[in-house]
């Protein structure tokens, strides 16, 4: 890792212009919303699969060929529908958190780098 001022560590290399300038890369809210809903659907599908494994197996429904595949597909569709209708709230929380972080990053980029930085030993550098 090269020696960078503290304010530049954590910035991605492609962010060479401040967020307030033209050409600013904005968050596509529709894509973000869909990505968060898809993530929630994956999480819920995994949760349903693990919940199903915790149920004792009996001979009532049988163990026919393809049962596991059918249940897996059913869990995926159920999770997708649950996510589209609000699900367990994970997608919405994730969506709000990502937007909040993006707003903080934009605000920090608008302020620009600090003029003085304090070193570890307490002295200032310019």
Briefly summarize what is shown:
This protein is mainly alpha-helical.
Q: Would you give an account of this structure?
A:
The chain has 126 residues and is mostly helical. It has a domain at 27-54 and 66-111. It is built from three helices and two strands. The protein has helices at residues 29-53, 67-84, 90-111; strands at 117-118, 124-125. A two-stranded antiparallel sheet has the order 1-2. Helix 1 (29-53) packs across helix 2 and helix 1 (29-53) packs antiparallel against helix 3 (90-111). The longest helix is centred in the N-terminal third of the chain and has 25 residues, at 29-53. The radius of gyration is 24 Å and the shape is elongated.
Instruction: Let me know the average pLDDT.
Output: 75
- The total count of strands amounts to 2
Coarse shape: elongated
Quaternary organization? single chain
Strand order of the largest sheet: 1-2
Rounded to the nearest angstrom, the distance between the terminal CA atoms is: 22 Å
Approximate helicity band? 40-55%
List the helices and strands and how they pair.
Layout: H1 29-53, H2 67-84, H3 90-111, E1 117-118, E2 124-125
Antiparallel strand pairs: 1-2
Helix pairs in contact: 1-2, 1-3
Defining key terms:
126 residues; mainly alpha; two-stranded antiparallel ribbon; 2 strands; 52% helix
């Amino acid at each position: 890792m090269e020696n960078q001022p503290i304010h530049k560590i954590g910035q991605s290399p492609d962010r060479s212009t401040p967020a307030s300038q033209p050409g600013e890369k904005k968050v596509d809210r529709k894509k973000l919303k869909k990505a968060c809903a898809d993530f929630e659907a994956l999480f819920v599908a995994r949760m349903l699969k693990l919940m199903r494994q915790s149920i004792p197996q009996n001979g009532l429904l049988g163990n026919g060929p393809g049962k596991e595949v059918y249940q897996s597909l059913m869990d995926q569709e159920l999770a997708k529908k649950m996510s589209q209708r609000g699900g367990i709230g994970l997608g919405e929380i994730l969506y709000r958190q990502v937007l909040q972080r993006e707003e903080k990053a934009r605000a920090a980029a608008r302020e620009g780098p600090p003029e003085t930085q304090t070193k570890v030993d307490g002295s200032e550098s310019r």
